[in-house]
Specification:
With 259 residues, this protein is of the alpha/beta class. The chain is 29% helix and 16% strand. A seven-stranded parallel beta sheet has the order 1-10-9-6-2-3-5, covered by helices on one side. Strands 4-8-7 form a three-stranded antiparallel beta sheet. Helix 2 links the parallel strand 2 (43-46) and strand 3 (74-77). Helix 1 crosses helix 2. It is globular, with a radius of gyration of 17 Å. The protein binds fructose -6-phosphate.
Length: 259
């Protein structure tokens, strides 16, 4: 039975512990590969951020070696900053293009993201929400913020949120400043898939590496289901799992075999 919000429960999210970040990336890439093999026309939900870099490197390698093809797949970004120029290197569309989509055999028209230069951003958010739901995401890759966010759903966001315009928390802007020349340059807002949109994905795979993720991982996987920890919403999903390195898993109480 699904847990009600606020109810304390054990980990419903399966997790696998790998020795290091590189091994988590390989495991996540294995999951994406498995989905593509069973359905070459799969819709894949992509996250941005440091966690995903190794995952995309592994998928690119597999594609370039000829063992995996994205030729019939489509991909959907989770979120995009508002206020960056179209060619800004940190616009998520550009990050994903550089690190993944232009390096594999995806069709150019198979990559979707919110258009944050649309004249009406609320209308654009609704359009993107409909697009993602209609696509039916087969596997959604997720990172987790230090504050427990998924995509840019910050603590306090309702679990049924649709894709919408959000303000980034101070903590998230501070964390993301490492990708920009200065902290002031980090955008104040973004369009993000809502938690409710993300939960529509058939399968969700959360990836976390490093000791700075150990607290949000414990709260998300073993803590109460609460909108104060957006990633705890994964406990409500029937097919959510996590791949963690030893450091990210270090505060979990449950023993699961290491891979
Ligand atoms: C990015 C995103 C964010 C990141 C999270 C972790 O599209 O949605 O939620 O996944 O902030 O970021 P890293 O991997 O840089 O620690």
């Amino acid at each position: 039975m699904p847990a009600a919000q606020g109810e304390r429960r054990g980990p419903a999210v399966r997790f696998h512990i790998a020795a290091d970040a590189a091994a988590t990336a390989e495991m996540a890439a294995d999951s994406v590969e498995g989905v593509i093999r069973s359905n070459p026309r799969a819709s894949i939900g992509l996250a941005t951020g440091a966690t995903m870099e190794g995952v995309y490197r592994s998928l690119v390698r597999r594609c370039q070696e000829g063992s995996l093809s994205f030729a019939e797949a489509t991909v959907y970004l989770l979120d995009e900053y508002i206020g960056l120029d179209a060619d800004h290197p940190q616009a998520y569309r550009n990050v994903i293009t550089r690190s993944f989509t232009e390096l594999v055999d995806l069709r150019d028209d198979a990559v979707f993201a919110p258009d944050c230069r649309a004249p009406d951003l609320d209308t654009e958010a609704r359009r993107y929400d409909r697009l993602v739901r209609a696509a039916g995401i087969d596997i959604q890759l997720l990172g987790i913020g230090r504050n427990g966010h998924i995509a840019f759903n910050e603590p306090g966001t309702p679990f049924d949120a649709k894709t919408n315009v959000v303000s980034l928390s101070k903590a998230t802007r501070r964390d993301n400043a490492r990708f920009f020349d200065s902290a002031e340059e980090v955008p104040l807002q973004a369009i993000t898939q809502g938690t409710g949109t993300i939960l529509q994905a058939k399968q969700i795979l959360l990836v976390a590496q490093g000791s700075h993720k150990s607290r949000p991982i414990r709260d998300a996987l073993e803590g109460p289901v609460t909108s104060e920890v957006p990633a705890s919403a994964l406990q409500l999903h029937g097919d959510a799992s996590a791949v963690l390195d030893l450091e990210a898993a270090s505060r979990l109480s449950t023993d699961q075999p290491q891979v």
